[in-house]
Amino acid sequence: MRIWKQWTGEHRITRKPGNGRRKVTSTRDDRHLLLIVVNDRSASYRQLAARWSTATGVLMSASLIRRRLLHRGLRSRVSLYRIPLTENHRRLRLQWTHEHGAWQVDWQQVVFSDESRFSLWGHDGRIHVIRSAAERCLPECVIERHIMA
Q1: In 3-state terms, what secondary structure has residue 51?
Q2: How far apart are CA 25 and CA 31, in angstroms?
C-alpha cells in the first residue's frame, strides 16, 4: 500500500535520500583527532579514545575513532622494520643500482620472496602504527632495529 501511494503521488518506489544520523564529530574535531594521532602513531584506538575524552570532555568509542580515521584514509598497519642506514650505506646502495640498472635478461633470474606470518592465538609481537598506505616509509612510522651478527 505504501509503495502504491509513493508511485501514484510522487512516481517513485524508492526511499527519499535523508540526512542520516548526525555525526558526533565535526570536521574541526576530526582535524584535532588527526593531531592526536600524529603525535603518537603507535597508540591503540582505545588509548586514542581515552586521550580524546580527556582533551575534549566528549566520550567517543574506540570503534568510532577507528571509523573516523578510516574515513581520512588512516588505519592501523604493521610498522616497517629496517636497519639504520649511514651515509656510506646509502652511497653503496646507489652505486650498486647504477652498476646493475642496465640488466635486462639477468633480472629474470632474480627471485624476490615475501614471507607472511600469522598468529591464531594471542599477540604476535608486531608493533602497529596508524598511518595511510603512502606513509609507509615515514621516519615516525618505521622502527629501526639493529641486527647482531
Answers
A1: helix
A2: 10
- For residue 81 the three cell numbers come to 622494520
Distance of CA 23 to the CA centre of its chain: 22
Give the pTM. 0.62
Q: Decide: 72 and 25 in contact? Cβ < 8 Å.
A: no
Contact 42, 127 (CB under 8 A): yes
Q: How far, in Å, CA of 103 to CA of 105, rounded?
A: 6
Strand partners, 50: none
Tens-digit pLDDT profile for residues 3-60: 777 778 777 777 777 777 888 788 898 899 999 999 999 999 999 999 999 988 889 9
Residue 53: which of 27, 25, 79 has the closest Cα? Answer: 25
SS3 letters across 62-106? HHHHHHHHHHCCCEEEECEEECCCCHHHHHHHHHHHHHHCCCCCH
Burial class from Cβ neighbours inside 10 Å (0-12, 13-18, 19+) for residue 49 reads: buried
Q: 122-127: long-range contacts at Cβ-Cβ below 8 A with a sequence spacing of 24 or more?
A: 126/78, 126/79, 127/42, 127/78, 127/79
